[in-house]
């Protein structure tokens, strides 16, 4: 039982651990990168068991165990795909992977049968939810104060919704995703027109940052169109509007196109490219995450050199407990609390529940060990001080870079 008051020194490890767990589990978090949308975005807003089970992390795993051809699978209606994923990964196998265990955590938290033979009960549960109450409930359970969406003005359907003047739920903040813009093969003649394009969308969307995912072979400087677009369009716009630029580096797109959304892979990138950008643009704030485990130490060292660089999240293939634990500990050792430990990357609403539950566990464990070492070195700490650290990592660093989420 936790008996100490907030300002009392915690000098025993059991008491210290109990406090850390309590604080990490109860502190509200700002989720800096997701693919979630509020109901106003119609079919972009995904929730429920069929969406959860057809998440691309799980379809990739299903193809490893079910003897189904790509064509057969993609021809199935979504409910049938979800049935197959459930049967394959949850009934015929024990759901040991992180993405599969995530489903179990969601079902368990919502009071649903985690050993069900089929999806009948789960489907009935989600169908009976009132959408806005359900969103409220999920944000509350996950203790997420707000999420940053990924918004693409060049997506026709999404662009139309923005153009119709959609009113945003305050928990959903927008970010301007630049992948399509930055993968143009030529700048064209009119850089000014591209800058006006960004200005217009910044005005319309009010994004909290601009973001881009970059391939493993990304270089800066480089003699290519992307470099020109970054220097002449994106970076001046970021500076002018005081908007941070988010760099997500290390993806190898369409390694297996048959897997569709699940077909991307990972590659080790060159962190010095980001270092150079931070050095050349000291007035721009950068958020960066790298997909390869091999880049994590270098990213921490780069952040020690450039205080306009904020490492964030354990992205995609790194979002597994063993790797989250390792990366979080490395960051604490090299950066103190000046980083954003995790983002959910959720695409389906209820993923917030498991992604944050699992992340909090690893972050709490890493912090417990860190503080225990500190205690052994001769510095006790208080619950207030722990709260200050956790708040900084869960929302303070985010607020400093992109404002309140
Ligand atoms: O983690 C994912 O869901 C990936 O498919 C990507 O969307 C990635 O997070 C990205 O934003 O490019
Ligand atoms: Zn993402």
Tell me about this structure.
- With 405 residues, the chain is an alpha/beta fold.
- 51% of the residues lie in helices and 10% in strands.
- The chain is built from 17 helices and eleven strands.
- The strands form three sheets. Strands 5, 6, 7, 8, 9 and 10 form a six-stranded mixed beta sheet that branches. Strands 2-3-4 form a three-stranded parallel beta sheet.
- Helix 12 links the parallel strand 6 (209-215) and strand 7 (244-252).
- It is globular.
- The model has no long low-confidence stretch (mean pLDDT 97).
- It binds D-arabinaric acid and zinc ion.
- Zinc ion is lined by residues 33, 35, 150, 345.
Low-pLDDT windows of residues: none
From the spread of the alpha carbons, the general shape counts as globular
Ligands and ions found? D-arabinaric acid, zinc ion
Mean pLDDT: 97
β-strand percent reads 5-15%
Radius of gyration: 22 Å
Q: How many helices does DSSP assign?
A: 17
The SSE string, one letter per element, is EHEHHHHHHHEHEEHHEHEEHEHEHHEH
Cα(first) to Cα(last) distance is 33 Å
Could you give the count of β-strands?
A: 11
Helix content: 40-55%
Q: Based on helices, strands and strand pairing, what is the structural class? A: alpha/beta
How would a textbook summarize the main sheet? 6 strands, mixed
Topology, pairings included?
Blueprint: E1 9-10, H1 13-26, E2 29-31, H2 49-53, H3 56-65, H4 70-75, H5 78-91, H6 98-109, H7 120-127, H8 131-142, E3 144-148, H9 156-163, E4 172-173, E5 176-177, H10 179-182, H11 191-205, E6 209-215, H12 225-241, E7 244-252, E8 265-266, H13 271-280, E9 286-290, H14 296-305, E10 309-311, H15 321-335, H16 351-377, E11 381-382, H17 383-402
Parallel strand pairs: 2-3, 3-4, 5-6, 6-7, 7-9, 9-10
Antiparallel strand pairs: 1-11, 7-8
This protein binds D-arabinaric acid and zinc ion.
D-arabinaric acid (RAT) binds at residues 35, 150, 213, 248, 316, 345, 347.
């Amino acid at each position: 039982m936790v008996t100490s008051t907030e300002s009392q020194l915690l000098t025993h490890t059991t008491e210290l651990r109990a406090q850390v767990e309590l604080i990490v589990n109860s502190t509200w978090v700002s989720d800096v990168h997701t693919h979630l949308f509020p109901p106003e975005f119609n079919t972009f807003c995904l929730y429920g068991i069929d969406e959860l089970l057809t998440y691309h992390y799980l379809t990739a795993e299903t193809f490893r165990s079910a003897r189904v051809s790509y064509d057969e699978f993609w021809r199935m209606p979504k409910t049938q795909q979800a049935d197959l994923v459930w049967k394959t990964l949850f009934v015929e196998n024990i759901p040991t992977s992180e993405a599969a265990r995530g489903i179990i955590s969601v079902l368990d938290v919502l009071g649903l049968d985690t050993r069900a033979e089929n999806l009948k009960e789960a489907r009935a549960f989600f169908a009976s939810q009132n959408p806005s109450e359900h969103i409220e409930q999920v944000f509350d359970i996950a203790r997420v104060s707000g999420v940053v969406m990924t918004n693409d003005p060049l997506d026709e359907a999404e662009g139309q919704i923005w153009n119709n003047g959609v009113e945003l739920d305050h928990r959903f903040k927008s970010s301007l995703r630049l992948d399509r813009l930055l993968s143009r093969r030529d700048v064209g003649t009119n850089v000014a027109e591209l800058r006006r394009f960004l200005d217009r969308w910044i005005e319309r969307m009010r994004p909290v940052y601009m973001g881009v995912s970059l391939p493993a072979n990304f270089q800066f400087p480089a003699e290519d169109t992307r470099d020109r677009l970054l220097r002449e369009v994106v970076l001046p716009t970021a500076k002018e509007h005081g908007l941070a630029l988010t760099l997500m580096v290390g993806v190898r797109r369409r390694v297996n196109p048959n897997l569709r959304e699940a077909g991307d892979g990972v590659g080790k990138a060159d962190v010095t490219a980001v270092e150079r950008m931070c050095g050349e643009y000291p007035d721009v704030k950068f958020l960066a995450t790298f997909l390869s485990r091999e880049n994590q130490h270098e990213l921490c060292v780069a952040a020690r050199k450039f205080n306009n660089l904020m490492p964030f999240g354990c992205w995609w293939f790194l979002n597994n407990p063993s790797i989250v634990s390792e990366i979080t500990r490395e960051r604490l050792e090299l950066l103190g609390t000046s980083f954003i430990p995790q983002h959910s990357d959720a695409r389906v609403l209820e993923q917030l529940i498991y992604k944050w539950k699992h992340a909090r566990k690893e972050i709490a464990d890493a912090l417990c060990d860190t503080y225990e070492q500190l205690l052994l070195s001769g510095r006790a700490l208080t619950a207030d001080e722990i709260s200050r650290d956790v708040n900084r990592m869960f929302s303070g660093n985010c607020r400093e870079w992109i404002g309140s989420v």
